[in-house]
Each structure stands twice: as structure tokens, then as C-alpha cells.
Design brief:
signal; 6 domains; Listeria/Bacterioides_rpt_sf; elongated; Immunoglobulin-like; InlB-like_B-rpt; 6-stranded antiparallel β-sheet
């Protein structure tokens, strides 16, 4: 019984001892306040946006030995860790944060020949200050090829200037001479000298400074230099072809149309194209007859007398002309086929058509007429050509001209309206139309489309171009009236004469022969148009008409009544 109790006591002591042992072991992991503490802790790395570094784990009290590769971060230099890496692992987790310093980068400015701009060095992401624009002679700064950022970019930047050539102006002070418009050119653009100005009584010497070949980087002003012309007496010269008699007497008289060179009563060398020298203005006279049979010099079919160089200028010119083979011809034969209505005489000066003439009728064509052109004001040396239209023959004599040595004839440039640029439809009410930079009030004047049979077939392209005006003075349209007209809105300073070509619109017998053209001027006192002239002898073909005006500060009205009429080449002299 006792042994049994003893055994139980021994077992109880053993069990108590084991419990105390286990409790002693457990107290090694507890603090005095009974909080459990781990045996290992982590060392963590916050790279603040840099490259990643793995976390490390150490036991409390372990010596920390790490071969750390420094982190990297675009635009920054690694400075170190905050706090610094401990040498012994403490009994807690540790977080280390990387510290950085921004790199310095450079912005380089390539001004492409402009003023220098120093390179800009700033820390990464530093705000970029405003940069002054560079300058370059002759150019305007248009910006950089790459837009400058607000802050310094990674690795810096190189930008290149963009330039646009600047424009400058050349002005011409003609010192009382004819106006010359300013010239606006880009820098280094080629400069072409304008036409020389003119000034009555003076000769243009040149400009006060030499024009450069190309535009410099600044505006330029030039002033005309003039020399006073010593006025010489003008001469009246006449070519009457009497020297042809010697050619005839030598046996070279020929009825064939040939080309001749001829120097007659003046110094002028005349080139006769398609000419015969056996016909005069009348039987036994001396003159030249030209035939419109075609040549290499003029339009197809035209014959001419031509002088390449006539000196001392030209104030006026006149000549006698007749049709030797008109239906009313009495010399050299009768019943010719050159009808006056079909023949056009053209006068060219320096290659420009100055005037076109026609005979009134066959009686006048047979008898002959003196044609004249005044107020030419041609200076220096010029060329002259008198031509006859295709298929016809014209006798010329007594070419008379007045020189213009002083070049100071005080005549203004004529205003010529040829309708080539006009695009007018029929206006049933008054409408302002601008032609040749001049405003005209118009009513029922048409220029949009030319009728093939009724207009184009009667137009000489050399004289009338591609467009003539159609004045519709009477129409069946309910809004139409019996009057078609045009007049200048602003008064002309002065008009000596008014001339134009006109014909009856129509074809194949369809013509309104009742049509008339009335010419009016504005009476300032009564503020009404007063009749100056009426033209009633209109024909199927174009005829040249001329009316004396001789009024200053004047408005001129051209009106068509009782039918439709074509009008072209209106000239206000």
C-alpha cells in the first residue's frame, strides 16, 4: 500500500519538474511585459523612384554585411541612404530611403547664322527661363525647330532656329516725273530696274544711287536725276516719193508686187513689203501701192510700208491714201473689187497699234483722203508701220510728220476701253461696271458671249481682240427700253476727242439700219446730258468714228437707240 503511494508521489514530482522546465524554456521568448518578439527582422530599401533593391532579412544582433549596387534613377545622381545602413541588425524592421541629387543638363541653341545664344545648363526638371529671340540680318525669327519645354528635359536638348526672309521696299522719288510704283522684294531677291520715268522738258539721267543687284536688309529710296533738255525747233518732214521717178526712168518700173528698200526725200530707210511703184495717187504721179498678199512680217495677208528707225520723236503724222482698185476707181482701171467697207488701214508705232482707219465709202476711197493722228508725244527713236488688210491694195503718198525733239508735249495718256476684261450681261436697270479701273454706269451693254455669225465673223482679232460690246437699244424683253448706254461715273479731267469702232449687230441681211449712236456730255449747270453728236450712217462692218469733245471735268455718255450695235476700242483722248 505504501509502495503504491510512493510511486504516485514520485510520478507527480516528475510531472511537476517537466512542467517547470517547459515554462522556463518559454520565458526566453517573452519580455517582462509578456509581448512576443520575433527572432528575425527585415531591412527594406525605398529607392524613391529609382531602380529596385530587394529586401534583406537578418536576425537580431546579426552583423549586416551587404554588397549593395547603388540604385539608379533617370536624371539623378545617387547620394546615399537615409538613415545609413546599420552594421548590426536591431530588434525591429528597418526602412532605408535613397537620397538623390538632380543631374545638370544643357540646352544648346543653333541659331543658323543668327546672333549667338549661350547654352543653358540647369538641373533636371528645373524651370526653363524665357529665352530672348536671336536676330539675323534680312530674316525674321519664326521659332525653334523643336518647341522648348517648360522644364529641363532628360539628357538636355539641341534646338535650331527657323528663319523666314524679310521683305523690304524700294521707293522711287521721280522729282516731278511720272510715277513709279514701289517695289517690295524679299531679302536677297533679284532687283530688276523699273522703266525709266519721264518728265516734260527733261531727260532722265539716272538715279542718285546705283540699284543693287539684290535686295539688301533694309528699305531703299532712290531719287531721279534729270537733265534739262535744250529745246530745239521741231521739223516737219515729208516723204512724197518723188525719188521713185528716177527708179522708173532707169527701167525698173514694175507692176509686180515686190519687196523694196527705199530712201527718198528724207533720211528714212523705208522697207516696202508687197509693193509696186508704178501707181501714184493719180495718173502720172509718184507714190507707192502696197498689197495685202501675205508676208513674214505682219499678220497673214497684210502689206506694209515700214521704217525701223525714225529719229527726233513724233508729235503728229498724216498721209494721203486711196484705193486704186475700188468699185468707183477711175485710175488705173474702173470697176475694181476693193470695197471701202472691207479695207482697214492700220498704223503701228513701236510695234503697237495706234490707230485704225477706214474710208467712208467707195467714192471717198477713189478720190483719196488724208488721214491724220495728233497728240502722239513720241520721244526719241521709234519705228513706224502703215499696213493694209488682207486681200486689198492701198496707194500711199505724202507721209508727213512733225518731230518732237523737246519731248515736252503736255498731253495726257488716252483712256482706252476695249472690253477684253469685261464680263457684263444685259442690265435692265443702271449698273456700275468697272472696266480698266474706271467705273462706268451701264444699261443693256453685253460682253459675256460673242455670237459666231453676228459678231465674230465681222471682228478683226488684231483690231477688236476677242470681245466687243453689244449695245441692245431695243429688245422684245418686257423690261427692256429703247436705250442702251454707258457713261463714266467720275468726270475725266479733260477730253479732246472721243473715238471708237462701231457696226450694226447682225448677219445675212438681219440688221437694224434704223440704229443710231448719240454722244452726250454732262452739263454741270443743268445736271443733264446734252447731245453733242449723232452717228446714223452705221454699216454692217466696223467703221472708225471720231467726235470732238474739247471739255474739261466732263462725263461722256454713249447711247444706242432703235436697235443693236457693236462698239469697241472706245478712246477718250
Amino acid at each position: 500500500m505504501m509502495n503504491k503511494k510512493f510511486k504516485i508521489s514520485i510520478f507527480g514530482v516528475f510531472l511537476l519538474t517537466m512542467m517547470l522546465f517547459l515554462m522556463a524554456c518559454d520565458t526566453k521568448t517573452q519580455t517582462d511585459d509578456h509581448i512576443e518578439i520575433p527572432l528575425s527582422y527585415t531591412l527594406m530599401f525605398d529607392t524613391d523612384g529609382g531602380s529596385n533593391i530587394d529586401t534583406a532579412t537578418f536576425k537580431v544582433g546579426d552583423k549586416i554585411e551587404l554588397e549593395l549596387t547603388p540604385p539608379t534613377k533617370d536624371g539623378y545622381i545617387f547620394i546615399g541612404w537615409e538613415p545609413s545602413v546599420p552594421t548590426i541588425m536591431p530588434a525591429h524592421h528597418v526602412t532605408l530611403k535613397a537620397t538623390w541629387e538632380p543631374n545638370n543638363y544643357k540646352i544648346t541653341f543653333d541659331t543658323d547664322g543668327g546672333s549667338n545664344i549661350d547654352a543653358l545648363t540647369l538641373p533636371y526638371l528645373e524651370v526653363i527661363p524665357e529665352i530672348d529671340a536671336p536676330t539675323k540680318e534680312g530674316y525674321i525669327f519664326s521659332g525653334w525647330d523643336t518647341t522648348l519645354p517648360d522644364t529641363m528635359p532628360l539628357n538636355g536638348l539641341t534646338v535650331k532656329a527657323i528663319w523666314t526672309k524679310a521683305s523690304y521696299t524700294i521707293t522711287f522719288d521721280t522729282d516731278g516725273g511720272s510715277d513709279i510704283d514701289p517695289i517690295v522684294l524679299s531679302y536677297e531677291e533679284n532687283i530688276y530696274a523699273p522703266l525709266d520715268p519721264t518728265k516734260p522738258g527733261y531727260i532722265f539721267i539716272g538715279w542718285d544711287n546705283q540699284l543693287p543687284d539684290t535686295m539688301p536688309a533694309h528699305d531703299i529710296n532712290f531719287k531721279a536725276v534729270w537733265g534739262k533738255i535744250i529745246v530745239e525747233s521741231n521739223e516737219t518732214l515729208r516723204e512724197n516719193f518723188e525719188s521713185l521717178q528716177a527708179i522708173k526712168d532707169s527701167g525698173q518700173n514694175s507692176s509686180e508686187y515686190m519687196d523694196y528698200d527705199y530712201i527718198g526725200e528724207t533720211y528714212v530707210l523705208w522697207e516696202l513689203v508687197n509693193a509696186r511703184i508704178d501707181l501714184g495717187m493719180k495718173k502720172g504721179g509718184n507714190a507707192i501701192t502696197i498689197g495685202g498678199f501675205g508676208n513674214i512680217y505682219t499678220d497673214a495677208g497684210m502689206g506694209r510700208i515700214y521704217a525701223a528707225e525714225i529719229h527726233d520723236g513724233l508729235q503728229s503724222i498724216s498721209f494721203d491714201a486711196r484705193l486704186p482698185f475700188s468699185p468707183k476707181s477711175t485710175y488705173p482701171q474702173v470697176n475694181g473689187k476693193d470695197k471701202a467697207i472691207n479695207v482697214v488701214i492700220k498704223v503701228f508705232i513701236n510695234g503697237e497699234l495706234i490707230e485704225s482707219f477706214k474710208f467712208k465709202d467707195d467714192d471717198e476711197a477713189n478720190k483719196g483722203k488724208t488721214f491724220s493722228i495728233d497728240n502722239l508725244n513720241i520721244t526719241g527713236t521709234y519705228s513706224l508701220s502703215i499696213e493694209v488688210s488682207s486681200g486689198h491694195r492701198l496707194t500711199l503718198d505724202n507721209i508727213l510728220w512733225v518731230t518732237n525733239k523737246s519731248g515736252d508735249t503736255p498731253e495726257s495718256e488716252p483712256v482706252v476701253i476695249d472690253f477684253e476684261t469685261a464680263s457684263n450681261d444685259f442690265d435692265y436697270v443702271e449698273q456700275v461696271r468697272t472696266i480698266g479701273n474706271i467705273d462706268f454706269m451701264m444699261k443693256e451693254v453685253h460682253t459675256l458671249n460673242m455670237h459666231g455669225e453676228k459678231e465674230l465673223a465681222y471682228m478683226d482679232s488684231e483690231v477688236h481682240g476677242n470681245v466687243v460690246a453689244r449695245f441692245r437699244g431695243l429688245s422684245t424683253h418686257y423690261m427692256s427700253t429703247e436705250s442702251a448706254y454707258m457713261y463714266n461715273v467720275d468726270a475725266f479731267d479733260h477730253v479732246d476727242t472721243l473715238s471708237f469702232d462701231a457696226r450694226l449687230f447682225g448677219s445675212n441681211g438681219y440688221f437694224t439700219f434704223e440704229s443710231v449712236i448719240n454722244i452726250y456730255y454732262m452739263n454741270d449747270e443743268t445736271s443733264t446730258f446734252e447731245l453733242l453728236d449723232t452717228i446714223s450712217d452705221l454699216t454692217e462692218d466696223f467703221v472708225y468714228y471720231k467726235t470732238t469733245i474739247n471739255k474739261s471735268n466732263v462725263q461722256i455718255k454713249i447711247e444706242v437707240l432703235y436697235g443693236t450695235v457693236n462698239i469697241d476700242n472706245i478712246k477718250f483722248n
